[in-house]
From TrEMBL:
Residues 18-253 form the DAHP synthetase I/KDSA domain. One of its GO terms (molecular function) is transferase activity. This is 3-deoxy-D-arabinoheptulosonate-7-phosphate synthase. Keywords: Transferase.
Length: 270
């Protein structure tokens, strides 16, 4: 299946400063779906930091299914993320939605996220191969594992070796959840490659109550960390409130993950 792919020989860690993704220490990325205000993102950053997270997530540019939905604050959102990083000492990850935005987002972000819709945007992937910033590549919601890894190779083959994979659920016949989180994919990719793998149980399920158990399941099958949506007030979130953890939910998740980490001979720095 993957005998012609180079990713199977790729290095096993991606470094962002002193932080290593793909090591024995699990990485926690958390924050709101979208940056909505200064108060909101600073509060989220405070809670991520307090509970042991290392990376703050938040969308400044939001590719939404409906053109009438909140599209993000743009560069103002990036500036707020940078302020949160400065005040709380977190790294930041945010999405790049098109080639024209690469330079702008790269000026602010520590990790560039490529969302499900852009997994096979090969022009964008080639250009990301020219930057020095790590890229987290989310699996397309209808992509096979081979297609996902070939997309990673577009980035790597064009010069950027720092690629992190993210399993975020795929579209199946099931309608009870937003997507079907593919735990098979995590175990298989870890077996066939050395690429770090992050799990996204927020998008993988679409249900706040399922984020905790699926995060634990993902770590148990080999994921190197999690990325979850957490909002200071999910009921008022401008997007994805139904799958965003509350502050107390997030604290409980970290406590639970510490136990799972020990069971799989990994550590969670909190």
């Amino acid at each position: 299946m993957l005998k012609d792919l180079k990713v199977k020989n790729h290095k096993g860690e991606v470094k962002i400063g002193e932080l290593k993704i793909g090591s024995n220490e699990l990485v926690v990325m958390a924050g709101p779906c979208a940056v909505e205000s200064r108060e909101q993102i600073l509060k989220a950053a405070e809670e991520v930091k307090k509970n042991g997270g290392q990376i703050l997530r938040g969308g400044a540019f939001k590719p939404r299914t409906s053109p009438y939905s909140f599209q993000g604050l743009g560069e103002e959102g990036l500036k707020l993320l940078a302020e949160a990083r400065e005040k709380k000492g977190l790294k930041i990850i945010t999405e790049v939605i098109d080639s024209e935005a690469i330079e702008l987002v790269d000026n602010y972000a520590d990790i560039l996220q490529i969302g499900s819709r852009n997994m096979q945007n090969y022009g964008l992937l080639k250009k990301l191969g020219k930057v020095d910033t790590p890229v987290m590549l989310k699996r397309g919601y209808a992509a096979t594992i081979k297609e996902w890894l070939l997309s990673a190779e577009y980035i790597i083959s064009h010069g950027n070796p720092d690629v992190i994979l993210c399993e975020r659920g795929i579209r199946t016949f099931e309608t009870a959840t937003r997507n079907t989180l593919d735990l098979n994919a995590i175990a298989l990719v870890k077996e066939l490659t050395n690429l770090p793998v992050i799990i996204d149980p927020s998008h993988g399920t679409g249900k706040r109550s399922l984020v905790n158990p699926l995060a634990k399941a993902g770590i148990s099958v080999g994921a190197d960390g999690i990325i979850v949506e957490m909002h200071p007030n999910p009921a008022e979130a401008l997007c994805d409130g139904e799958q965003s953890l509350t502050i107390s939910d997030f604290a409980l998740l970290i406590d639970d993950l510490e136990k799972v980490a020990k069971a799989v001979n990994k550590s969670l720095i909190i």
